[in-house]
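Quick start: read one record
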Amino acid sequence: MTEDRDMADLSQRQRQAEELFRSGYNCSQAVIGVFCDKLGLDFDAVMKLSEGFGGGMGRMRLTCGAVSGMTMAAGALLSRGAGSGDTRAAVYSKVQELAELFKEMNGSIICAELLGLNSGEKQPSAPEARTEQYYKKRPCIRCVTDCVKIIEDNLF
């Protein structure tokens, strides 16, 4: 169960994202991973590409990894890619819109701020053990499920 919501209130994809996160995938992977089928992307390849975005980019506590996963989903859905026409302005506009929705829900898109840490404080690169205490003290599951909801409501 997430911090302040019952699992029954979550969509199927939100529940899947929470399950991915609880099973050891990072926040970025959990968000983009539940949309691989809709985006026509290979799950294993996406897990590899998105791994470095967890913990606010390699645990540097910069842009929230869930927001990074949401950004990847927007790009995968809206971009035509290099050589196929310029979709950059539309993608950037949508990413800004989605990030603003997340910020309205959570107060920030910065991992350190979401976690109540001092920005710029050096963090160890090794992830913390995933225990019940870990889940209780972190807003990560809420951030993941919020990003999935934002994608569902604004991209599909």
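The mean pLDDT is 92.
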